[in-house]
Design brief:
Elements lengths: L1 E4 L3 E4 L3 H7 L2 H5 L20 H14 L4 H9 L10 H5 L8 H10 L2 H9 L4 H5 L16 H8 L4 H10 E4 L2 E4 L2 H19 L2 H19 L12 H9 L4 H10 L9 E6 L9 E4 L2 E4 H4 L1 H16 L1 E4 L6
Antiparallel strand pairs: 1-2, 3-4, 5-8, 6-7
């Protein structure tokens, strides 16, 4: 299989286990799952699918010399995401942690189709589902990992993408940068994505509004939690044809190109704080960006403090 990735270029995949996983229904379902949670038609920026990101993580691991097992774990790391990704966490009241997908991961990896493929090639679904077993794929914040790197560079400017992709290396079993300039550039751009997009005004306002629309649809029994384990389009079709005034008003609100300047809600919302403080090689040793650049450390701590305060988002102003 030839994979044409917009970040890493063309890659030929001939490993049987990867090929079967790529063609499995649970993986193909991710083509219809929005990485940003809010679908493009209701968001303010164009997104990409969980499938694109998952394949990207697998390719990045491959480029970095990860084992075939870790590449498979990387490909499957988001297979348990529901429709609308982390918006579901807000629907279920887990907005601060956004961990619903993590809690369901083992069930998906050990399921009939994926579990059968893994066992066929001698891999343990239990081990594959334990992402912390793979130190290139998944690490605690603030370290770099393939997951964190891939979803960030898919949103960064082309220059940052180019510099990041060519400057990553493995040192003592960790993903690090060869140069401090690339490490700083990536850290600052990651923080900018967090403050201006992932937990910014537009993104947070739309997360809140869209999750309220979905909760309203659940309350009216138009959809159920089980529907989120399917595709997004079927749910969208159901809610978009609803005559309920709150749902119609909420969707009209989300179609606005910008929410800036609208009245604010009275309650603050809280978004998960994502950040990196990457390491780079300095005279044969590893050094963190925050230690080399005190200004970045101050900027990072200030962003953390602001995030803890929560954010007043745009008010939908339901008429009922």
């Amino acid at each position: 299989m030839l994979i044409k990735d917009r970040i890493y270029g063309n890659f030929s995949i001939d490993d049987p286990v990867i090929l079967e996983l790529l063609k499995s229904r649970p993986m193909l379902r991710l083509k219809g799952i929005s990485q940003f949670g809010v679908p493009d038609k209701y968001h303010y920026i164009k997104g990409f699918s969980r499938y694109e990101h998952s394949v990207g993580v697998m390719i990045l691991l491959r480029k970095l010399g990860a084992s075939l097992e870790e590449q498979g774990a990387g490909l499957l790391h988001d297979v348990s995401h529901t429709a609308f990704s982390h918006v579901v966490d807000w629907v279920l009241g887990q907005g601060k942690t956004e961990n619903f997908q993590d809690d369901a991961h083992f069930d998906f990896v050990s399921g009939p189709e994926v579990g059968r493929i893994l066992k066929k090639y001698g891999y343990s679904p239990n081990r594959i589902s334990n992402l912390r077993s793979y130190k290139l794929l998944d690490r605690e914040i603030p370290d770099l990992c393939a997951d964190r790197v891939d979803y960030a560079i898919r949103q960064c400017s082309s220059g940052v993408v180019k510099d990041t992709a060519k400057d990553l290396t493995i040192f003592n079993g960790k993903i690090v940068f060869r140069t401090k300039s690339s490490a700083l550039s990536f850290a600052e751009n990651f923080l900018l994505l967090q403050t201006s997009e992932w937990a910014g005004f537009e993104g947070s306002s739309r997360y809140k509004a869209f999750s309220d629309v979905l909760k309203r649809a659940i309350d009216l029994r138009l959809i159920g939690i089980k529907d989120f384990f399917g595709d997004e389009q079927s749910i969208l079709k159901t809610i978009e044809k609803s005559d309920d005034s709150e749902i119609k008003y909420g969707l009209a609100f989300l179609r606005k190109r910008s929410l800036i300047g609208l009245p604010l809600d009275t309650d603050r919302v809280y978004k998960k704080f994502r950040y990196v403080d990457p390491e780079f090689i300095n005279k044969g040793k590893l050094q963190r960006v925050s230690k080399a650049y005190p200004k970045f450390e101050r900027k990072l701590k200030e962003a953390m403090r602001e995030n803890k305060k929560g954010l007043l988002v745009a008010s939908v102003g339901f008429p009922l």
